[in-house]
Amino acid sequence: MAATMDTSRNSILRSRVLKSCVFVLWFIASVIPLTFSITSKHFSAKTPYNWVHSTGEVSQDEWYTMEDLKGMACNAVHASAVIRHGARYPGLEDVNNLINVHHRLVNAMEPDVNPGIYEWVNRFPSNNDKALHHLGEEEQEELGKRIATRLYTLFVDEDLTDFRFIVSSMQRTKDSAGAFYEGFSNVIHTEEDIDDEFDSEVNEELMRFFDLCAKYVYSVGQNKTAYKEYHDFLEGSEIAAVKARIYEKLGIKDDILKPAEIRLIYLACGYETAAFKSSPWCSVLEDDDMEILEYLGDIRHSIKNGYTHNITWQQSCPLLSEIFFGFDETIVEIESTEEDEEVGGFIVGQFAFGHAETVGPLYAILGLYNDSVPIKADNRKEQEHRLFRASKILPFSANAVFVLYECVPEEFKEHEEVDEAEYYLKLFVNEKPVRIPGCENIHCLYSEVRNRYSHYIDRCDFKQICKKAPPKDEL
Q1: Is residue 33 part of a domain?
Q2: Region of residue 137 (phi > 0: left; psi between -120 and 50: alpha; otherwise: beta)
Q3: Residue 432 needs a FRET pair 20 to 30 A away by CA distance; which of 27, 97, 314, 363 works?
Q4: Which cysteine pairs are covalently linked by disulfides here (predicted)?
């Protein structure tokens, strides 16, 4: 009888323990949403920098000397960079719309179909509307370290006054410049020499010309007709197929999502993966869906920041002019310095922090990433290897760095007295050397490059270019 009672008690205990374990597992699953990783990390211009570009160790002075010219000794004398702000939080409007989408999905789906999405809770603070994310701070700080290392000898003995930092009025560009400066100064200065009082110059005409150019705002920015290809693709069969696959995965029968909200789910997947390493929103997207939605973004950015409308890139001429005037001043200062004087008094590094709408038009006015066939709603398959791919060329912290080199015959490289030097230019986009359009080699005579763009440099009449005109469909 006692043995029977012990067996019964053990059975009851085991049952209670089992029920407790089941409850704990249920509780954990209900409190902690299931998350899913993704294999494709291409989110058009919302892609974090290190997802698409290698950010490993770099060599000291690897950009300082140029070995491309035989018989010539070439050292960097000036660098000018245009840098997009780092990874940011989503905009408040997107966050609120995503909360609304989630509410409708929860009302339409069963809890056990996708617990990750069903139990999803917004983790983005409402007061961080497009603010720089900690990942963006890291991107910029590390970028500052790498550029300072690659041009160490150019920068190491210079005072803060020998550098120029330009930002837009947006706080995320100011914070990006500050993070960049922290990494930059930690490489070229000792801890005692680092100046905590970092000054930057707000310049909207250089960094946010797209807000000041009336013709662009009127004919592109606020003109729905200008975005015809984007809306055609958004409302087309491929996005509809993505939506159908999402409905199937979530067991939804009613048509409750607009096409633009499919893009919002895609962006949520990217934002959350960047901030929290993974996101349940990714679980409803296949790699093919990601490619389709990435292409949608590229159509948008080719219109907004690329070649589709001439005014988009024409309006960036003040920025291009500023870059080349900096080179001109450097050369004049070097050439006018007396033989017994120390060369100095000019900016050795200019770093301008803007937006995708700053960097994209700069690419376009230079002629970079120009596809021979325009990116359109009906040719995605043909554009599989497109050059204008925002995930690669316009991610967060995208950067274009021009480096000006002074070159003298090798036998004179140890002498201060050189009658005449030649100046060459190299361009690095996202830290990789890129051939400047029109140049035969990766390096190019500065005078030739300047002459090629002289129309935009010397005859940049921003007011005339941006004079308001009636909207025109240029498609």
Answers
A1: no
A2: alpha
A3: 314
A4: 74-407, 269-282
Average pLDDT, the chain: 89
Please tell me the distance from the alpha carbon of residue 386 to that of residue 301, in angstroms, as a whole number.
Answer: 13
* CATH number reported for the structural domain that contains residue 326 in this entry: 3.40.50.1240
In a domain, 5, yes or no: no
Domain span at residue 343? Answer: 39-91+132-222+308-465
Helices (H) and strands (E) in the chain, counts: 21, 9
| Alpha carbon distance 74, 445 (integer Å) | 12
| Band (66; pLDDT cuts 50, 70, 90) | very high
For residue 17, pLDDT over 80 is answered with no
Tell me the pLDDT band of 338, cut-offs 50, 70 and 90. low
Decide if 205 is inside a domain.
yes
State the Rg of the chain over Cα: 27
- Calpha distance 201→276 (Å, rounded): 33
Q: Report the alpha-carbon distance of residue 134 to residue 454 in Å, rounded.
A: 40
- DSSP three-state, residue 426: strand
Looking at residue 346, its pLDDT comes to: 85
Distance of CA 332 to the CA centre of its chain: 34
How many residues in total does the chain contain? Answer: 475
pLDDT at 472: 53
CB within 8 Å of 428: residues ≥ 6 apart? 63, 399, 400, 401, 403, 434
H-type helices in 315-443, by residue range?
317-336, 356-366, 390-393
> Crossing angle, helix 259-276 and helix 92-108, to 10 degrees?
110
